[in-house]
Amino acid sequence: MIGKIRTVLAFGCVVAATVVLVPLQLISMKTRLWPETFILKIWHRAVTRALGIRVHTHGTLSNQRPLLVASNHISWTDILVLGSLVDVKFIARADMENWPAIGKLSKLQRTVFIERERKRSSGDQANEIASRLAKGDAMVLFAEGTTGDGNMVLPFKTTLFGAASMAIAEGAAEEVFIQPVAIAYTRLHGVPLGRRWRPVASWIGDQDLGPHLKQLLAEGGLDVEVHFGEPIAFSKRSNRKETARVVEARVREMMQAALGEPVK
């Protein structure tokens, strides 16, 4: 009964926030009346609170530009969490563009959709990301290329760092800063999530979104930590594969530290 009541109330809050803020975001995009991410940040915060997600931060987003944020990926809620904290734009898989509601909301925050399996289109996609970096957008790259179970960081896809190389090659910047960021879901109703139960927070692969959303609406009380590491300068002399390995290692280190000693 409590779960059903909570689901109704939380869903109502999400709908209310969306109905009020989406028109304001459309106005903002057309008139530049507010900074582009101002309304988005309010929406992300409203939804995370409705879902009962408590966000704890360590460190801050770098103010250096161009900036590529390289993060691990556990759930669709990662976007809400990061979007509630910092002014960033996202890089997402192409099929999300056609998802009901989610696709349209993603377009409102100028998400770049990429087809990771189609090499023919990878050049154009990297070029768009490079262009956005050059314009000063901080772009979030979920560098594993998929979602994990929340217990470990999967290997980073080095090809996804191609936009940084392209931005430099085209003369848009002499170097791109890559900031490692770790996301860790650590507690449920104040109780530490062990290895067995941590996947409750995760949304893996082709899992249906509806059941996972329903579970979060009913459950609530989820704690997540976001750790911002020191940015790494990537230049034309840098090795893409080596840089990816270094960033991956730093994300893994921060994530394991968060899981080992979660914030109370």
From TrEMBL:
Species whose genome carries this gene: Mesorhizobium hungaricum
Protein name as catalogued: Glycerol acyltransferase
Keyword Chloroplast part of the UniProt annotation: no
InterPro entries: Plipid/glycerol_acylTrfase (IPR002123)
Cellular component GO terms, alphabetical: membrane
GO molecular function: acyltransferase activity
Domain of life, source organism: Bacteria
Subcellular location: Membrane
Any GO BP: lipid metabolic process
SMART domains: PlsC (SM00563)
Transmembrane segments: 7-27
Domain Phospholipid/glycerol acyltransferase: 67-186
Keyword vocabulary terms for this entry: Acyltransferase, Lipid metabolism, Membrane, Transferase, Transmembrane, Transmembrane helix
